[in-house]
Amino acid sequence: MKQRNISIDILKCFAAIVITNSHMDILYPKFGALATGGAIGDALFFFCSGFTLFLGRMGRFDNWYKRRINRIYPTVFAWAILGSLLFGYHNDINRVLLSGGGWFISCIMIYYIVLYFIQRYLLGHLKLVFMLIGVACASYFILIDTPMDFNMYGEGYFKWFHFFMFMLMGAMMGISQRKHKYHFVWDGLKLIGCIVVFYALYAFKDVATCNKLQMLTWIPLLGTVFYFYKVCNSEWMKKAYNHRLIGWIIKLVGGLCLEIYLVQTSLFTDKMNVVFPLNLIVMFVIIVLAAYILRCGARLFAQTFKDMDYDWRAVFKMV
């Protein structure tokens, strides 16, 4: 797909923002509950990854998977080097390979394997696969022991199962490319409704006798991602994207989604909380700058191990 997909750029930008906000507890002096949105951001991220996955050439598995590694792991290795030099991190090679990019890098590398074989042998049955995965996740969640404080979107491996639905949903949307009617106002209202229902159902995670109802959050969360996608395809959003400055910011932040996730926790500080909420904006700008430096380091790392001259323009390219 040679033409840049505007909606995916915008979705990745939103994903980077809300995932970062969900980790900003320390920056909210009295309003910690506002540091939320992680589940929505993760769902958007997996949707975007699935959307573009089947649009390129597939070919033999080893070569296809190698291209996935080449897109992700130079950044992971560059962060391991920079983290060691600047922050004193001391990770062994096993940790760097298995969890150096955070949980969703390990998760998505597994998803790639499964999705390759789904594309290879079950491409005409994606809806059936999607339903079977949903049923399997629900059945497993009902059977496992869930203590009172269990959070299916929190720590642990359970989320590795159900986020696969969102990546597969992205793949289906990317393949179909259906011409939906996109309306900023009505789709925006539906989006808000899905978010409200999601958080209302999510509240049951704190009720031991009802925390199994957490799995109902998948429905409004899927709706949230779908209507986010529709809103991002609306004419209003396209006009905003085509604005020179706004479009540049969207492409920059969306393109640095992985790097932003990697660097953010090392930079959070409460030293600017006296200027709340301005501290949130300043902190995010700092994170984006650090993410860009990491991106440059990753490109330099990747070029170093290729049989080619350094392309410094490519190393420092912004978007």
Core attributes:
single chain; mainly alpha; about 325 residues
Please, could you describe this protein's structure?
- By secondary structure, the protein is mainly alpha-helical.
- Helices cover 68% and strands 0% of the residues.
- The chain has 14 helices and no strands.
- The chain is globular, with a radius of gyration of 20 Å.
- The model has no long low-confidence stretch (mean pLDDT 90).
**Structural class designation:** mainly alpha
| Shape category | globular
Helix count equals 14
- Structurally, how many domains make up the residues? 1
**Main β-sheet, in a few words?**
none
Q: Count the E strands.
A: 0
Mean pLDDT: 90
User: What Rg, in angstroms, do the CA atoms define?
Assistant: 20 Å
Order of helices and strands: HHHHHHHHHHHHHH
Span between termini: 18 Å
Question: Helix proportion of residues, in percent?
Answer: 55-70%
Strand portion, in percent? under 5%
User: Which residue ranges are poorly predicted, with pLDDT under 50 across at least 5 consecutive positions?
Assistant: none
Task: Reconstruct the topology from this structure.
Layout: H1 6-22, H2 38-53, H3 61-87, H4 93-99, H5 103-121, H6 126-143, H7 159-176, H8 184-202, H9 218-232, H10 235-242, H11 244-255, H12 257-267, H13 278-304, H14 312-315
Helix pairs in contact: 1-2, 1-9, 1-11, 1-12, 2-7, 2-9, 3-5, 3-12, 3-13, 5-7, 6-7, 8-9, 12-13
